[in-house]
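ERR on first pass: missing label on line 2. Operator R.T. fixed the label and resubmitted. Corrected input:
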Amino acid sequence: DQQVKQNSPSLSVQEGRISILNCDYTNSMFDYFLWYKKYPAEGPTFLISISSIKDKNEDGRFTVFLNKSAKHLSLHIVPSQPGDSAVYFCAASFNNNNDMRFGAGTRLTVKP
Amino acid sequence: GAGVSQSPSNKVTEKGKDVELRCDPISGHTALYWYRQSLGQGLEFLIYFQGNSAPDKSGLPSDRFSAERTGGSVSTLTIQRTQQEDSAVYLCASSVSGGEYTQYFGPGTRLTVL
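pass 2 clean. output:
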């Protein structure tokens, strides 16, 4: 079953604007959430994470918001840059790392 | 320092053949994971090694899949009697320990079964 869902396979944004990537999960036991970025022919790289005890975590241009009641998290990138164009995976984990589940990914294209 | 490396980067094989995929984790990382990404799908967890503990094999899709980790470092994922549905990118990741959430991924091995 797909416990982590990214319902938008793709997103296109103009350079300088905000990119909002969404992720929904079904298992309320998840207590840690991560975003990974993946360029073609490379493995995913860690971007930002948030613990379930928080509702927001910010790192430079990247902010992750967590809404536990809605089982929803989002990644905001502002301002978006062409180099941000990649596939973004949402991941969720509980208890320990080996239970991490990934979404299907959203391909972000930032147009100059 | 060196990141996670995987070999080969691409593998084309015929249905029914066995294949071995290799992963070299980051030195000192005790936790090692294998995932696969089929076309249009997210990353699917396959197996997890943590130190000398028995591996978590709960994600392996069938008994044709097996993995070893020798000396707590290099890992080999073996797929026996490959099927076309095994075609995917196989990704290896390592982390400092099983309790460390950040995983560092290798570039993956693209497996194509004809």
